[in-house]
Amino acid sequence: MKRSLFGRLWPNVTAVVLFIGFVFPVYWMFATAFKPTGDIISEDPVWFPTDITFEHFKRATGVDHFWTYVTNSLIVTLCAVVLALVIALAGSFALARMRFKGRRGFVIGFMLAQMAPWEVMIIAMYMIVRDASMLNSLVPLTVFYMMMILPFTILTLRGFVAAVPRELEEAAMVDGCTRAQAFRKVILPLLAPGLMSTSLFGFITAWNEFPLVLVLNKETEAQTLPLWLSSFQTAFGNDWGATMAASSLFAIPILILFVFLQRRAVSGLTAGAVKG
Amino acid sequence: MKRKLISAIGVAGMMISLAACGGDNGDGGDKAGADGYAGQTLTVWVMDGSSPDQWQKDVAAAFEKQTKAKVKFEIQQWNGIQQKLTTALSEENPPDVFEIGNTQTPAYAKTGGLADLADLKTSIGADWTESLNESSLYDGKQYAAPWYFANRVVLYNKKIWAEAGLKDTPKTRDELYADLKQIGEKTDAEPIYLPGQNWYHFVGLTIGEGAELVKKDGDSYVSNLADPKVAAAMETYKKFQALSKAPKDKDEATPQQGEVFGKGNVGAFIGMGWEAGIAIKANPKIEKEIGYFTIPGATADKPEGVFLGGSNLAVAAGSEKQELAKEFLKIALSDKYEGELAKLNGVIPNKESLQTNLKGNVVAEAAAPAAAGGGTTPLIPEWAAVENAPNPIKTYMTAVLNGKSPAEAAAQVEDEFNKRLSQQQ
Amino acid sequence: MTVQTERPPSGPVDVAKRAESGPAGPGRRAASRLGPLTPYLLLLPACAATVLLLGWPLLKDVLLSFQNLNMAQLIQHVTEWNGIDNYKEVLTGEDFWRVTLRSILFTAVNVVLIMILGALVGLLLARLGRRMRVTLMIGLVLAWAMPVVAATTVYQWLFAQRFGVVNWVLDKLGWHSMADYSWTSSQMSTFFVVTVLIVWQSIPFVAINLYAATTTIPSELYEAASLDGAGGWQSFTTVTLPFLRPFLYATTFLEVIWVFKAFVQVFTINGGGPDRLTEILPVYAYIEGVGNQHYGMGAAIAVLTILILLGLTAYYLRIVLKQEEEEV
C-alpha cells in the first residue's frame, strides 16, 4: 500500500493551492478593511498589512441608524429561522416516520416550493403587503423569509429524522412513553446537530436577503443590514477600505456561526445520516 | 468575540417572543386640526446633495413656526429613484412633498400620482420663469412647482493646473483639450475624470451641436441617434474621454466623481457646482484648490451646449396632508428660501428676480454664460422610461468609446430606445 | 438575495431518504394508534404557510401577468386586464428566447464545473492526511460561509479595473494588456467573473458533503472489489460511484436551482450589462418588470421563468417521484 513520493506529495500540494484559492478572497476582504487607504490604492498590492487602522470600520459603522439595521437584521433572521425550524420539525417528522396517503405529493410539493424564484415575484409580494397595509414592518419580512427557507428545512430535517434509529423510539415507547414524549426525549436530542446545520442555511438566507426589504420597507427604521451594505456602492463609491470593512462586519457573524456549527453538522452527517 | 456574539444572539433570541416581529407605521391622525397643524409631521423627499443642510434647517424652522407642524427631510439617491417613487406614490403614506427631476416630471404627471397645484401657481407662481416651468405642465395643468435649475461646469484643481504651468482657463474646446494634454504631460495627475457614461454632459454636447435625441415618427417618437450631429457630439466626448482613466462603462455617480476628484490627483471634471461639496466632504483640504469655469465651446464666443438639469417639487396626490404640503411649498419656494438655495448652491432659482442672489457666486458665474444655450431632454411622458437602467443612451456611449462607430452604436441601441419610447403607459 | 442563491450548510440533502425505508410496521402501528389524521395535522402549519406565503404571491403574479400594469396603474390601483398580450409580446420577441438560451447555457456550464470540481475536491479530501484535510476544510468552509452580498462586493474589488489584485497578478505574469482591464466591459469577461464567484462559493457544499458521504461507504465493499481484481479506477466506478449516485443526483438538482436563480451575483456585478448581454432570466424579469416599470410584463416573464425551471428539473423530480412510489 506504499505510495511513491510523488503519490504522497501531489495531494498535499494540490490541497495547499486549493486552500489558498478558497481563502484568499476572504483574507483579502479583511486585509483591505484594516489597511490604510494609501496601501489599498498602491500600484503594487500590499499583501500583508503592517499598519493596522480601524478608520474604515469607524466610517462603516458611523452611518446613521447602523444599530437599527443590526437589530432589525437579528430580529428578522432569528424569528424566521426559529419559526421555520418549529414548523419544519413537525412536517418532517410526519414525512420521515409516517405512512399516509398523499405523502409523495407533499414531498414533491416542498421540492417545487424550494424552487420558487422569489426575486421575480417581488412586485406581487409588494402589492399583497401594500394592500394589507403592512409596509415598513418587520412582520411580512419575517414570515416571507421563513417561507423562503421552509422547504429546504423540511426536506433536510426529514433526512435527519429518518437517520435516528427507529429502535430507539420504539424502546422509549415500550418503556411507557407516548409517541410525543418519545419524540421529545429521544429524537429531539439526537436531532440537535441536524437542527443546527439546517438553521445555518436559514440564517444565511435571511441575513442576506435584500430585494424584498428594499421594496417593502422604505423607512430606515425598518431596514436591514444588506441594504446598508449595498448602499455603500453608491455612498462610498470606490472607497474599497470602507466597503470591505462593511463587508467584513456583515460576514463575521455568519463566518463565526458557520465555523462553530459546521463541525457538528458534518459530524452529524458522518454519524450515519447518509446511507446512500 | 465568538462567545460574546453567541451570547448576544441568545439574548436577542429571548427577546423575540416579547418584543420582536413588530413594527408600526408611526403617524397617527393626519387631519388638520383647529389648532393649526400641531402634532403633524410632513415628509419631504429631497435628492442627495441637492439642498444644503443649512437650507433644510432654516426652512424647517420657518415651517414649524408658521404651521406648528414638523417637517422630516428624507435624503434619496438618484439611482433607482423612479422605481422607489412609483411604489411610494401607490402607498397609503406616500412622501407628502418630493423633489422630482424635470425630465421625469411629465411621466409622473401623466400617472395621476401628482396633485394639481393650480392654486399654488396662482398664489405664488405668477412670476416663475416660463421656460423653467415647462416641465411641470402637462395637459395644461400644473403638476409640480419649479424649484431650481443648474447646468454643468468644469471643476478644476488649481494646484494641478499651476503645476502644469497653466495660467488662464481655456476659452475654446481646443484650448481645453490642449490644457488637459499638458497636464497629462507635465504632472502625474489624471488630466480629467470623465467616465464613459456621464450622459447629461453628452446630452449637453448634442444640444451644442443642435441635434435632437428623438424625432417624431407619425404619432410616436423614435430614436434619432443616427443623426450625424449626434455622432459629432459623441466624437467630442470620446476625444476628451480618452484623456481619462475613468471606466468607460460607469456613470459619474459610481463612484461619485466628486469623491475621486477629492483625492487630489485629478485635474478636472465636468459636473454640477455642488459636487464640489462631495469632494470637500471626502477631503476638506481640497476646498481652496477648487476652481470653476464655463465648459468652453467650439469657438470662444459661444460656450458649450449644456443640459439644463433641474428639479421640481411636487405633492403626492395620495397624501392626506394636501394643505400642509402646500403650506410647505409656499415657504420653501418663497423668495427668502428660494433665494437662499440659489445663493448656497449656486443654482438658478425659479424666478428671474431672484437671480441677484447669484452675484459673486463663483459657481453660478461659471455656469451662467452657458445656461442661455442650454436645453433639456424631450419633455414628453415617454422619456422617463428611457432613463431606466440600462439607459440605451449610456449603452450607446460605451459602445462608441469601446471602438464602435457612432452609426454602428446607434443601430445597436435603436431597438431598445424605440421600445422604451413606445412603451405602453 | 433570496434563499436559494445561498449555499446551505451541509445537510444530508435527500440522500438520506432511503434510510427510512426500514421496517414500516411500527410506524404504521403508531400512526394508527394516534389516528390517521396525525400526519396531516403535523404537516398543516407547513402547508398553510406554503399556500399563504408562496401560493398567494404566485397566484397574484399569474394574475398580474394578464394585466397591463405600469406606473399609472400601480399608482392609482387600477386593474386593466389585457388578456395574453404580455405573453404574446414576450414570446414573439427575440429577447426572451435569447435570454432563455443564455440562462440554460449559463446554468449548464456552472453546474458542470461545480459538480466536477466539487467531486474532485471531495475525493481529494478523502485522500489527504488528517492535518491537511482539516486545513483544506477550513478554507472551504470560509468560502462557503461568505454571505453572497459580501462575497459579490469582494469579487468586485478583486476584479476592479484599478488597483484590483487580479489585474496586477495578470500583469506580473506577463499579460501586460490586462493591467488596466475592465472586467465588466464585455459579455464573456463579466460571465467569467460571475462564474468564478459562483463556482468558488459552490464547490465547498459539494466537496464537503461528498467527502462525508464517501466516509460512510463500508470498506468491505472495496475489499470485495479488490478481491475481484478491481484496480483503483474500477473500484471507483463499481463501488464509489454507484454508492454516491443518489447524492450526486440530489446535489445536481440543488445546484441547478441555485445557479439558475443566481440573481444577486449577476445583478450586482454588472447589472446584466454590458448592453444587457449578461441578463439571465431572473435578471431579465426584474429589469423588464421593476426596472422598466412594466410590471405586468415582468410578471409574465416571471411565470415563464418558473415554467422553464420546472422543465430543467423535471428529470430529477421524476426520479424522486418514482423513488417515493417504491417506498410507499
UniProtKB/TrEMBL annotation, chain A:
UniProtKB keywords: Cell membrane, Membrane, Transmembrane, Transmembrane helix, Transport
PROSITE patterns: ABC_TM1
Ranges for domain ABC transmembrane type-1: 70-261
Membrane disposition: Multi-pass membrane protein
Location (main, coarse): membrane
Protein's cellular compartments: Cell membrane
InterPro entries the record matches: BP-dep_ABC_trans_perm (IPR050901), MetI-like (IPR000515), MetI-like_sf (IPR035906)
Pfam families reported for this sequence: BPD_transp_1
GO biological process: transmembrane transport
Domain of life, source organism: Bacteria
GO CC, any one term: plasma membrane
Positions of transmembrane segments: 12-30, 74-95, 107-129, 141-165, 186-207, 240-261
Family named by the database record: Belongs to the binding-protein-dependent transport system permease family.
Name of the protein in its database record: Sugar ABC transporter permease
Organism: Streptomyces regalis
From TrEMBL, chain B:
Gene Ontology MF terms: maltose binding
Lineage: Bacteria, Bacillati, Actinomycetota, Actinomycetes, Kitasatosporales
Signal peptide, first to last residue: 1-22
Protein name, as recorded: Sugar transporter
Family assignment from sequence similarity: Belongs to the bacterial solute-binding protein 1 family.
Gene3D superfamilies assigned: Periplasmic binding protein-like II
CC per GO annotation: ATP-binding cassette (ABC) transporter complex, substrate-binding subunit-containing
Coiled coil (UniProt feature): none
TrEMBL record, chain C:
Membrane topology annotation: Multi-pass membrane protein
Subcellular location: Cell membrane
CDD domains: TM_PBP2
Annotated region (Disordered), positions in chain: 1-30
Record key words, sorted: Cell membrane, Membrane, Transmembrane, Transmembrane helix, Transport
GO cellular component: plasma membrane
Record field: transmembrane: 37-59, 104-126, 138-158, 191-212, 247-267, 295-317
BP terms from Gene Ontology: transmembrane transport
Annotated ranges, domain ABC transmembrane type-1: 100-316
Domain of life of the organism encoding this protein: Bacteria
Main location: membrane
Transcription regulation recorded as keyword: no
Family, as annotated: Belongs to the binding-protein-dependent transport system permease family.
Protein name per UniProt: Sugar ABC transporter permease
Source organism of this protein record: Streptomyces regalis
